[in-house]
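Technical note accompanying the year-one report. For the benefit of new consortium partners, we illustrate the data format agreed upon in the data management plan: each record pairs a sequence with a structure-token string. No post-processing was applied to the example shown here.
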Amino acid sequence: MSIRVMVVDDHPMWREGVARDLTEAGLDVVATSGEGRQAVRVAAAVRPDLVVLDLQLPDVSGVEVVRGLRAALPEVRVLMLSASGEPQSVLDAVKAGATGYLVKSAAPAEFLDAVRRTAAGEPVFTPGLAGLVLGEYRRLAAAPPAPHDDAPRLTDRETEVLRLVAKGLSYKQIAERLRLSHRTVQNHVQNTLGKLQLHNRVELTRYAIERGLDG
């Protein structure tokens, strides 16, 4: 099935260029928008799998748009595509619910790869930013809460995959480490997300770190 993508950026030439690149790569661009509030309304109507979102918009910040998108469409993936690689911008976007964060200087092939991986639920970051996000989650989890007795029970394999997710490994790396197929790893992650009532791999990583599974 084709990936349904929405592009949100206030610069018409950039927005149209991104939409054209996505279409030529075989993805289905279902909508574009230049404003944040409009983007949330349109996304709720067209229900994209993935939103490629600029951080700076004329009416509201991209971070606010992420919150609105996730409230309207809990399953939607959001890939931030921004000129800014400032650590605080990245952390704010991820905490709001963004799945990945790429700077606009990325090469076209890198961008298209990031779109496909983000749509599959992988957190994708410009090199150097993934460590920043994991480091922040580790800081927040410095004093993790005691595990709840009523926490959903994971299988041994799901726990094993979860530990590697918390270490920042990609699906491909996890598959190679455990000698599993890429699809099997994806299935384990999706099953774990469902059991824990989480929405994406970023939330799953934080859950694992809070419980000391990244050691």
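Partners are asked to follow this layout when depositing records. Residues 142-210 form a domain with the Arc Repressor Mutant, subunit A fold (CATH 1.10.10.10).
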